[in-house]
Amino acid sequence: MTPLERITERVNRLGHPDSQETPRPLLTLDEFFVGNSVVGSIGCNLYPAPAPSQFYAVLQAIAQRPEVSDVRVQITAFDDPDWPFSDTVYVMTSASPEEVSSWFPEELAPDETWSGFVDQAYEPYSVPAGTEPVAVWWD
Predict the structure, then answer these.
(1) Which spans does this entry mark as compositional bias, Basic and acidic residues (predicted)?
(2) Can you give the pLDDT at residue 22?
């Protein structure tokens, strides 16, 4: 199975992610980034456009922090046939949104961070005890 076939199967398991009725997939870092070389699949508003591997390295380092229990990539759309798109990453942490934002280098800085999931349907996910989701969003 190719990386594109794998991620297509993964993000469509509850329905097409472009449909408002489909719960948003919350992928692990490996699920979203392994095999992903599509510039613009995350951080598409940044200039110059970073490679997915740059995000992967930073998010892997964040996932290793002692105050972080998990990092998930929300699939926002799958309107590009080459790879699904994300504008939001959720960091499960005891840190504040401001602190989480400071963990990103300037060239990958998010536009906003906030506490909690956006009010929409997500695939089943249990937030680890002692943490809350901090949204990291790129416009």
Answers:
(1) 1-21
(2) 95
For 92, the enclosing helix (H) or strand (E) is strand 88-93
Q: Which domain holds residue 71?
A: 3-137
Those residues with Cβ within 8 angstroms of residue 83's Cβ, 6 or more apart along the chain or in another chain: 4, 7, 36, 38, 41
Taking alpha carbons only, the member of 133, 110, 134, 112 closest to residue 50 is: 110
- Distant-in-sequence, close-in-space partners of 28: CB < 8 Å, separation ≥ 6: 71, 72, 73
Alpha carbon 22 to its chain's center: 17
β-strand partners of 136: 89, 113
| Threshold 0.70, pTM exceeds | yes
pLDDT at 107: 95
Q: How confident is the model at residue 103 (pLDDT cuts 50, 70, 90)?
A: very high
Q: Could you give the number of structural domains in the chain?
A: 1
